[in-house]
Structure formats: structure tokens, C-alpha cells
Amino acid sequence: MGNLDSKIPKGPLADKWTNHKNDINLVNPANKRNIDVIMVGTGLAGGSAAATLAELGYNVKTFCYQDSPRRAHSIAAQGGINAAKNYQGDGDSNYRLFYDTIKGGDYRSREANVYRLAEVSANIIDQCVAQGVPFAREYGGLLDNRSFGGVLVSRTFYAKGQTGQQLLLGCYSAMNRQINRGKITSYTRHEMLDLVIVGGKARGIIARNLVTGEIERHSAHAVVIASGGYGNVFFLSTNAMGSNVTAAWKVHKKGAYFANPCFTQIHPTCIPVSGDHQSKLTLMSESLRNDGRIWVPKKLEDAKAIREGRLKPTELKEEDRDYYLERRYPAFGNLVPRDVASRAAKERCDAGFGVNKTGEAVYLDFSAAFLRYGKETANTQHLENPTEQQIIELGKAVVEAKYGNLFQMYEKIVDQNPYETPMMIYPAVHYTMGGIWVDYNLQTTIPGCFATGEANFSDHGANRLGASALMQGLADGYFVLPYTIGNYLASDIRTGKIPTDSPEFDQAEKAVREKLERFINNKGTRSVDHFHKRLGKIMWDKVGMSRNAPHLQEAVAEIKALREEFWQDVKVPGGLNEMNPELEKAARVADFLELGELFAKDALHRNESCGGHFREEYQTEEGEALRDDENFMYVAAWEFTGEPGDAILHKEDLIYENIEVKARSYK
Asked: What counts of helices (H) and strands (E) characterise the chain?
């Protein structure tokens, strides 16, 4: 076990980033045109970095498995993006955003990185407005803001319920400008299957053309992993079905440490599971918690009657409803952080108060918002003596203007009108705070290999606050990596093109080809999905929202056994040198089966509860997470040594010099 050097600059927290930018090496514009960078992933982190690096003069090669960069999973983000602009005049500041993020992550993130994130956040909004992103605006013309969980200010900028899509389109337009100039070469429908290291440095990748099946070699002076998170290790998650861990896992197996894999976010406002037929889950934006109130019946008999269809939620009197978040956390109410809201929903449903047929759902109710907004509208329109129904209709119009596409999406999926009956929600796997370990420069433990956005671990600790994923992705891509990668590349100005006919490329391609051929030639009887679903059930049941030592020990053993069975009995139809989606899935699930074991191992070693990592053995009398700062205030970074179960732990101690570390409370 060793201690990691995060390369945090010296000096006062507020000056670290500015001083660091002044001190790092730069690359002459004339030399940038001779340097190549590979970008794996074209979501907000990868797309923004690719566009910015190309604008600076570097030659960028982008890779995505989708048919267009604009189909990256960033497009699915709904609610908004945080920035410390303080447009509302409600007391926000860089420090407040920094503090909220550290506290929201339960004091398990790196102080210097989080402050930098807060510091550059305002620049992101200016950048996106300049690109034409249609953020919502308030009556005076300024950009509007709304609140998200875990904070007491309104700092979330949004574009209805399509914020990720609009930000990605802005990013994609910036990429297209560089594609048109010839500074970005876009490889769509390509998947990275290995990292190539030459002379101890990342110098390229092996990729598969998913249309033709061809195995390709691509070289560069640096490789950036911006491939998102690994939530699909649970099979059912809010991630796109194609989202995977492969790029991150390949660099891990080549020497990049994997940090805090057990820090995975359970999002409280997901449409509940409806049956075994499902292949993914759908998120309802956290923004809905601004105006929706979460409740379950107070009486067990009422909950049972609702589940059996004998009682409608609209028939239940106000005094018979338990607004449990408002009851337990009066200061934050329905806007507590995601991990807190998720555990509270699970506790109510485990106690028998769930409201759908499976007993795993709570209500998200907008009836109070209809009345509140309706009365406000009636006043502004000077309506005299409006009826309650008129007020409700006016209020519904306001809610529709704010959240209409989300309500429409819910109705299409559930076949219930959320304007007439409360939405049903339940927690589900969403975002992964763990990921590839990076230092302050976003460089992994492999020289020349960088990781940005959700693919790295750096900014969110044990729990991500809502609307901070888009912030981190764009901060890394637009305003951090372009500086720090230049510091690394300054020593490569005389290197010249990296050849792909070297023994290192030969060996990497050979290993990739042999693995894919093994899938094709395997005489198994079970589909890839069969194994993925079984892995997901183990993960959810024993490594999910609530964990304990016996279950985690069982999970480690069961995942290892499942992996052995997978390699013996998986059946992959089709051939290697052709379009073969089942082959793609098989390679991804093989990586999930390795990650899953390390995930459980990490959760087992961390004998505390913090953020999204909740160990049943470590909780307060009130059922809240109980940290162990004396023994676990560190980043757990795992080194691959051949088997996930044999991974070696390295620690990066977390030192807080600018905030007081204390028990997290939202009451």
C-alpha cells in the first residue's frame, strides 16, 4: 500500500488554480499543430475538451460508440447545471458552492479540486450562453435559477427539462466547427478496447469499428478518457443501455488506479420498476422536488388499500398523509441530498407504506403547487373571486410551462396523468462518484492518460449534489484540461508522429483480437443479457442502497463465480468481422463482471457509512450515515494486479484546511 501524490499546488485555496496556471508549461501555437490527442467519449466532458483543444490548435481524434457525438448520454440530463453566479442575490458565492459540494459529498472529496470547480463554474454559463444554449430566463431578462437538493440557494441554470440536451448541442456545434476545419477527426460507431502504452506513456488505443468489425490502431501523444460512469453494472439504472465501463476499466488494467468504486449514487426520483421485462429505468428530474411534495400514507391500512386499488391517493385527506422528508428534515424538506432522500424512501417502503403494487414507490405530488401558482397567477391577472378549480387550472399551466416535457414523459411511460394523480417514484442507480483516480491535473497514474467528467473520481466525494455533473463535465473540458494537458504535452513538441507499427501496438491488438475470438468461438448456451441481469440482481440486493458485511462477502464470491460461469457458458452469435451488437455487449459485460467484484471489495473494506455508501452496521440512532473520519478520511485507489479480488489498496489522505469537518445534517 502506498500514498498517492495528488500534485495539489501550494498556497491559499482561492489562489491555487490561478497560481498553477501561471506556473505550468505552455505549448507554442506553432507546435500544437504537431501534437495529437485522442478523446474517448464525446459527452459534455469529452466534447467540450475536444472542441477547446482543437480550437487551441491540437489535432484531436474523437471516439464514440454512438452514431453521432450528440447522442452521448449527457443528452439525458434534465434538471440543470450549477454555477455560483448569485443572480438571485440569495447569498451564493464560490465559497458557498465549494462548501455545499464538500458537505454534499460527505467530506470525501478533494478540497482543492472542488474549489476550482466552484471557481470556474460561472465561466461555464457565459460560455454556453455565447454558444446559444437557450437557458430559461426570468421576467427581467436575466437567466433564471431554481434550487436543487442539499443547498439553501438557487444556483441551478436550466432549459426546461432538457438541459443536458441543450448543453450538448452547444458543445456539439463547437465540435462541428473544428471538424469542418479539419482539427477534429470524428470516429463514430467506434469503441475503445485497449490502451497502448509505449515507453511508459499512453500513446494510443485499439478500437473496433462497430459497423464493419475492423480492429483499428490509433496513436496520439496523449489519451483522454471521458467515457462516463459505470452505473449499468447494476443492469437496471437510469443510464443509457449502451453506457459501460470498458474504456475506464481497460486503462485501469494497464496501470491506472480505480478510486472509490463503491461510491455510487442512488437517485430518489426514478419511475419505479414495473417488472422483469425492463432493460432500463427512467429518471424524473430532481428539479421536480422544487414544487412536488413527497409523501406516503400515515396509516398502514391506507397504504394497503392504495396498493390493492381500493383507495385513490387523491381521496386521502391531508392529515392522513406523511410528508416524511418535511417531517424529518424541516430545514431542507423535499430538497435534501439524493442519498438522504433515497434512504428515507426505502425506509418508508420497507416499513410497509409503499404505494404501488410492488410496495416500492412513494408519491411526488404537485397539488399544493397548483394551488400556490394558481393563486399567484390569479392575483397578477386581477381575477376576482376565482373558483378553486379555476385556480388549479391556472396553477397547472404554470407547472406545465416549467416541467411540461417531464410530465409528458411520465404519462407516456406510466399511462397516468400526473396533473390528475400524483407521480410515483422510487430510488434507482444513477451516477457514479467513483472512477479513475486522477491528480489535480486530471492525469491518471499512467503518464499521458487523463480522465475527465464522470469517468474520474475527483469532485463529488461519496454523494453528488444534483446539477453538479454537467458542471464538472464542462469545467473539466472547457476550463481545466486544456491547461493541464498542455503542461504535459510541452515535453512532446519534438516527438513527432507516434507510429502504430510498433511491438506495443502489435501486442495490444493481438490481445483484443484473441479476446473477441474467444467470445465468437465459445460454445455456450446463455445470452449475454442472462449474465448481466444476474450480476445486476447481486449488485442491487447486496451492494445497493443498503450494505452489510455478510452480504458484501457473499457478493464478492458470487460475482467471481458468475464471471467464471460467464466465460464458460456465454453464447455470442454472429461473427467478428461484421456488425455484431451481441459481441459489443459481451465485451462490456465481461468488464462489468470484473468491476462488480472490485466494487463489492471496496464497499467491504470501508467500515463506515458516508454519502451513497450506507453500511447498516454504521448508522446513528436516527438511521443516518455514521462516518469514521479517524480511519477512513481518504480516497481508496485500487491497483490492478491480475484479479479484481487481489487489487492493492493505495490511499490519498483527504486534508481539510478551509472548512470544518462535522456531522452532516439537513435538519
From this structure: 19, 19
* CB-CB neighbours of 493 under 10 Å: 15
Locate 367 and state its grid cell.
397539488
Q: Name residue 634's beta-bridge partners.
A: 653
Paired strand residues for 223: 38, 449
228 sits in the region (left: phi over 0; alpha: psi -120 to 50; else beta) called: left
Residues 272 and 361 sit within 8 Å (Cβ to Cβ): yes
Q: What are the beta bridge partners of residue 264?
A: 432
Per 3-state DSSP, the chain is made up of helix, strand and coil in percentages (nearest 5) of 45, 15, 40
Going from N- to C-terminal start, the domains of the chain cover 269-427, 503-639
Q: Which helix (H) or strand (E) holds 322?
A: strand 321-322
Name residue, grid cell 467515457: 227
Cβ(266)–Cβ(428) below 8 Å: yes
pLDDT for the residue 49? 98
φ, ψ for residue 418, nearest 5 deg: -70, -10
Under 8 Å between Cβ of 158 and 81: yes
- Tell me the sheet residues that pair with 166: none
pLDDT digits (tens, 9 = 90+) for 14-59: 999 999 999 999 999 999 999 999 999 999 999 999 999 999 999 9
pLDDT, mean over the chain: 96
Contacts of 30 (CB under 8 A, 6+ apart): none
CATH number of 503-639: 1.20.58.100
Segment 390-413 mean pLDDT: 95
Question: What digits encode the pLDDT tens for the residues 425-446?
Answer: 999 999 999 999 999 999 999 9
pLDDT at 2: 54
Catalytic residues: 338
Q: Supply 174's cell numbers.
A: 463547437
What is residue 41's predicted lDDT score, i.e. its pLDDT?
98
Size of the chain, expressed as the number of residues it contains: 667
With cut-offs at 50, 70 and 90, classify the pLDDT of residue 380.
very high
Q: Residues with Cβ < 8 Å from 164, sequence gap 6 or more?
A: 44, 74, 75, 76, 77, 78, 470
Angstrom distances, CA of residue 65 to CA of 37, 62, 265, 272, 585: 18, 10, 24, 28, 12
C-alpha cell at 488: 504535459
* Residue-by-residue DSSP string for 515-540: HHHHHHH----B-HHHHHHHHHHHHH
Region 256-262 average pLDDT: 98
Phi and psi at 394, nearest 5°, equal -65, -40
The residue written with cell numbers 460475482 in the block is 559
Residue 651 is given by DSSP the state E
Q: Are the beta carbons of 510 and 392 closer than 8 angstroms?
A: no
Q: Give CA–CA dist 54/362, Å, rounded.
A: 47
- Summarize pLDDT for 148-179 with one digit per residue, the tens: 999 999 999 999 889 999 999 999 999 999 99
Looking at domain 269-427, does it have CATH number 3.90.700.10?
A: yes
The helix/strand/coil state of 159 is coil
Tell me whether residue 584 is exposed, middle or buried, using C-beta atoms within 10 angstroms of its C-beta: 0 to 12, 13 to 18, 19 or more. buried
524 by DSSP, 3-state: which? Answer: coil
Q: How far is CA 600 from CA 190, 264, 597, in A?
A: 30, 11, 5
The reported pLDDT for the residue numbered 107 is: 98
Grid coordinates given for 209:
469499428
pLDDT exceeds cutoff 70 at 4: yes
Is the per-residue pLDDT at 1 higher than 70?
no
Indicate if the pLDDT at residue 3 is higher than 80: no
